[in-house]
Amino acid sequence: MRRYAIFILTAFLIVLAAIAGMSFRVDADKKTLGLPTHELTAYTTLPAETAAILAEVYERETHVRINFVPMNSREILQEIRNDAVSDPTVVRTVDIVLADSKILKEAADLDLLTPYTSETNDAVRDLFKDEFDRWIGVWYDPIVFCANRDYLRSTVDIPDTWEKLSAAKNMRVGITDFLAAEASANLLLQLVGNFGDAKTYDILEGIHPKVVQYAKFLSNPVRQAGMGEVDISVAVESETLRYLQNGYPLKIIYPADGTSYLLTGFGITTTDAAKNQVATKFADWLLGDEAQLYLQTNGFYFIPTNPQTLAYKSFAGKNLLLFDNRANFSDKQRQEFLYRWINEVRLK
Predict the structure, then answer these.
(1) Residue 284 is part of which domain span?
(2) pLDDT over 70 at 287, yes or no
(3) What is the secondary structure of 103-133 as a DSSP string?
């Protein structure tokens, strides 16, 4: 009997080795042919151009294909909720979410995200991730004061706080309409969350008479400052850096009393163990220097949340004072604050 047992065990090991070898050869053949060895479906709020850059580079480097599906925040939340309540025996149709942290917080509160930890995301500050590791911020884009250099040479009283910007005299200001872009609306809400509504609307009332025109796009205030059409713009840093790289005479001023920011984060939704491992590796890649290098090469400048990266260390404003981004206003409250700005400031 012992002899038969040895034969059976030997046969089993041979079969197991053959299966493993076949699997290895399949993956090796796919890599040789340039075919993806794995695929992930990702819902994202990123612009299609940004998502395409990340997907192309990651597949070229790792042979893992990321199929990005652009959606707005509400659509993402609804889709992953629908996916989660479907037949639990069926693998979810979406594997990961790369989106505004606000929607990731809501998804985490609804228990729609799978916690994950790694040595890479452990280095990220608590400010930029969920306390239970259900999502992780990968980069952020703060609001800054974008100043025309000729204007700076003509004055000694440079505004470096929101109150000083509000109180400044003889100044032209560029800013994006709070109803036109998420980053701009987020600024209003975070000002209210950190300064209170009374002080916030006092600041905005002081800025309003200086506004040359409320822009519809985030890039317009930066262009206005670069062309000398305004003296200082309230703008996202990524657009300001893009114009600086193109030779515009601009200087970034970081508000000393704090500023708002949009945080882009990553969450895993798949319930498949193998896909979970692939998703974790992609998250760690997003937190590394390679992703930032390719984004910057293509004109996208975001501050990484991982302080160990060279990209993070190269940003002059990496230590700027950030508002507490955890104020959780309801959709109704958001609308009320925005309409109050329209009625009490813009149309007053």
Answers:
(1) 36-140+262-314
(2) yes
(3) HHHHHHHTT-SB----TTGGGS-GGGB-TTS
